[in-house]
Amino acid sequence: MRSEAVDPRDVSFEVEQPVYRVYFWEHTGTGYTFPQRRGRELGPAQAYASRASDEHRLHEAEDVEQVLAWAQAHAAGRSFVVYVEVEEHAPTGRQRGLVRLHGRDPDDVNSRCASAGAATARSAAAGSDGDPTPS
């Protein structure tokens, strides 16, 4: 981790009550794939961890500590990742993205634990609503 001094005047806006997302993850078993070698011949089975996620949007939270407390209270033994939503206005329209604040995304092989490293980001086009779960 690195630290450097900043000029607080270089920020053009601040979001007082951001929208958070909490994604709970649980191991649901083991899946298998059978890659093809050549033609129609199947290669040896390759095992992979099968996971399920349960996603939630949290509005009107006082701060990230309240979100973390809510996530811990609802985890029920599952791991979880906490994000804050951000929006960007691009030439193609509004886009919603996620900045990871806590945890590790098990679907991202390059993911490091956000509480032990730099935040990562996800994004989706505004038309897709960026929300994989139905409302």
Count of individual helical segments: 1
Radius of gyration: 19 Å
Q: What is the 3D form? A: extended
Structural class: mainly beta
Output mean pLDDT: 80
Biggest sheet, open or closed, and with what strands and sense? Answer: 5 strands, antiparallel
Order of helices and strands: EEHEEE
Name the poorly predicted regions: 115-135
Strand content: 35-45%
First-residue to last-residue Cα separation: 38 Å
Helix percent reads: under 10%
Secondary structure tally: strands: 5
Sequence of strands across the biggest β-sheet: 2-1-3-4-5
Commentary on this structure:
The chain is mainly beta and 135 residues long. It is 8% helix and 40% strand. It is built from one helix and five strands, in the order E-E-H-E-E-E. Strands 2-1-3-4-5 form a five-stranded antiparallel sheet. The protein is extended and about 60 Å long. The model is unreliable at 115-135 (pLDDT under 50).
